[in-house]
Amino acid sequence: MPGAGALIAWVGRHPVAAFGLFFAVFPFLMPYKSLASQVLIFGLFALGFNLLYGYTGLLSFGHAAYYGLGAYGTGIALAKLKIGSLWLGLAAGPLLAVLGGAAIGFFCLRRRGIYFAMLTLAFAQLLYFVAFHLADVTGGDDGLRGIPQLPLNLFGWKWSLEGSLAFYYFTFVLVWLAVAGLKRILDSPFGTVLQAIRENDDRASACGYDINRVKHLSFVFSAFFAGLAGGLDALRLAVVPVESLYWVTSGQVVIMTLLGGSGTFFGPFVGAGTYLVLGDRLAVFTERWPLVLGLIFMAFVLFLPKGIWGTLVAKLPGGQTAGVKP
Amino acid sequence: MDFALAAVLPQIFTGLVLGMLFVLLAIGLSLIFGLMTVVNFSHGALYMLGAYFTVFFLGYTRNFWVALLLAPLMVGAFGLLIERFLIRRLYGRSPDDPLLLTFGLSLVLIETAKIIWGKIGLTLDPPRALGGAVNLGFMAFPAYRIFVIAVTVAVLFGLWAFLTRTNVGLIIRAGSRDPLMVRALGIDLNRIWLLVFGIGCGLAGLAGALAGPMRGAYADMGVTMVIESFVVVVVGGMGSLLGAVVAGIMMGQVVGITTYFAPKLAEIMVFVVMAVVLLVRPSGIFGEAGLAE
Fold it and tell me: CB A129 to CB B268 under 8 A?
């Protein structure tokens, strides 16, 4: 398939443009528009996770924490503090996620490897219990309700975001910016050090890099993307369920990234799309979605560790000559 | 003062019982990790299976003691299958992979349990011989809970004797220090790993079987337990069995005493203690820095 190979090679050279082209028409390929927004948002969440796992080599098992902090940050700003601005409300989510990521990252990065994974999970559970019991602020078990659907206000122009297509394109522009930002991070010297740490952190340390600071910064960046995803999802749903912080959410983002291919640029979006569309279609046939999910999880770890996109890139002839992993 | 003490004492004992469950789970996790550097996330699901198997065998044999013996053995046998057919394929790959695999496995097990036994939990009565309370002189305490403490202590002594007094135990301890050297001496470590994985899972099953009559059996019962047990392992020091015992008892007390003063904080305190220990001693109370990282 030379055509497909050339396409993948082109995508590899111009990932940000390719992302824009594909997701501009994406909602018309989906069964309904809200699902398309969900794919973008969870793709962004997985993108943030992938920065830490795929590129820095740190497996966080508690990324629900930053997604949840983002969702609660935006939700509380809009529903409880009655901030009348969509932009300020949306900014509050990633801000809270970044603060949380900086604090939790400080503790978790004291240990490496498997310890790190379980510590991130432990801190996410801690936040879950806090949100569960602080019902005055978070709505507790019932979730945080009453998030207003504010119109978008851009240089004096006002657009309503209540239509699902309008909301999709609002999300699309923000996620596109985030994707471009991630590309910029990965292409910078800092991004190169991240990948050096993934390959061998002792050697990166011996080269004179302060790897703890680099890891911490990567953690905070990752929390930012996850928090932005959480904030957007709070706007999409107009409610923040307490499950946003639950360990299952952390597991979801891990499997999305694994499905698509960790350490590849588009893997998170391919994974989020596959996961959400499959889940949406299968839910029609079976309510045993977690069972199917667990089996897919095991099958991918055992037989297809590179994921869908990662395998495509490795198999197709044009993919390997692309130089960088697209 | 006396009044407060009388109110806190039952909490200390309840915390001790919870600590015993933590110890059984954490020792299994730590044993498997120390030898194989595998984190078994499905440990919580196996704990849950232990409780359900007890209910199942109790219905089948009508004898609690037989059920209590068979359930952990079945969970241990199940663990052997997990190691042989799933974990073994992942040796030599990133240590994250077994964690991811067993995470998927625990989703499958929890959902399967919901299909077989229903979404609503089952209750389980302690055997009639242990149904009452024992007067300890200063307070009365349910006999079954004292039994749980006694069983755990007995199992710990058995495990200690097995690891320090038998040849297989010697190989296990040597294997966790230097697997390459043990292999060079002509010992088949694959069989040892299989055995240790089975023992670890069996201990999780025992914890679940013991917990059943106190907390009931429900599909999600292992989720918080496995995370808290891992916290216990981190606090005690990964791979250190003594650390798992001390930290398990300590965490049981933390939960028990916090439940008395501020019930809402009980689940949170566990993580606060972990954060403090990590700040002061990153390798845990009994951990050696840098071991198997």
Answer: yes
